[in-house]
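Limitations
The structure tokens in this dataset are predictions for the assembled complex, not deposited experimental models. Users should treat interface geometry with appropriate caution, especially where small molecules or nucleic acid strands are included. An illustrative entry is reproduced here so readers can see what is and is not provided.
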Amino acid sequence: RAKAEGGHRYQHFTAEMSTTTRRRVEIGNALRHAIRLAELSLHYQPRASVQGGAAVTVGMEALLRWDGQLLGRVAPSEFIPLAEQNGLILQIGQWVLERACHQAQAWRARHGAALPVAVNLSARQFRDADLVRMVEVALQSSGLPPHLLELELTESMLMQDARRTRRTLAALKAIGVRLAVDDFGTGYSSLSYLKSFPLDYLKIDRSFVAGLPQDRSDAAIVRAIIAMAHTLGLKVIAEGVETAGQLAFLRAQQCDEIQGYWFSRPLAVADMETYLGRPGQQFGAVAPLSGSIG
Ligand code: C2E
Ligand code: MG
Ligand code: MG
Ligand code: MG
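Predicted assembly:
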């Protein structure tokens, strides 16, 4: 199949290559074996609702980790753009989707934690004609109810081809999954487009959260995003919340949910299991979306 094609072409070193180029080639080549060698894993970062008294766990985001035999731990910010270029992202993305759905379903059964799992989609995956089917297969093979899967997209992905975007989003919504715009505020979304897309969440990029509560422009931007999102009927998640001061500001501005080191770091599977099994651990109830299938 076409999606595997990008994975077979090796690049070779030449004397003229810069260190950066060599590193990129090295990563590109090593990544081709990462799935087979079981070098990829997912960490899970819990997120909390902050409206209401105590912070209650209401979801988690699956974050890819790669511990390569040759290269050690490589950050997603380094290898995902490369995987996007050489096409490996399609295989990797499918693996992530399958793994995250199976894991969320296993935890649902074991801990009674009906926690939605959020999966990041890359631009190439979003444009892939197979995406919708791939999502259906991941849900069916895992048994995870569709409303417990969230897909994170970026503004630039949404704004590329509005017609096609609308068609893909409608197909995903028909399955019953939730849709989130990640890193919101860093791209150039058209508000009228945003309004016309069937989205559920905006995730405020952590670069705006970092300056809270002191930085006046960050504070103004965050306030505006929350107000706008609520007007459009979207829930707001703030990313990268690290301090009590940031949390207090966000709470006062009616931000719905937070994700960040203040609440929890991304956790390896074993640590997430300890987290989920903590006595008294509270999970927010997530109702299926009205009108959704399944
Ligand atoms: P993202 O989707 O915006 O994910 C949030 C990033 O912020 C994660 O970085 C997370 O570890 C980090 N983070 C969470 N809380 C805090 C905090 O309080 N402070 C700070 N400084 N950082 C925080 P990570 O895991 O390195 O991932 C980076 C990016 O790589 C992600 O950004 C996402 O765009 C991409 N990525 C990760 N996993 C996948 C994947 O499975 N597929 C695709 N396509 N992209 C992925
Ligand atoms: Mg994300
Ligand atoms: Mg992202
Ligand atoms: Mg983000």
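Some entries come with short summary sentences. For this one: Residues 1-6 have pLDDT under 50 and may be disordered.
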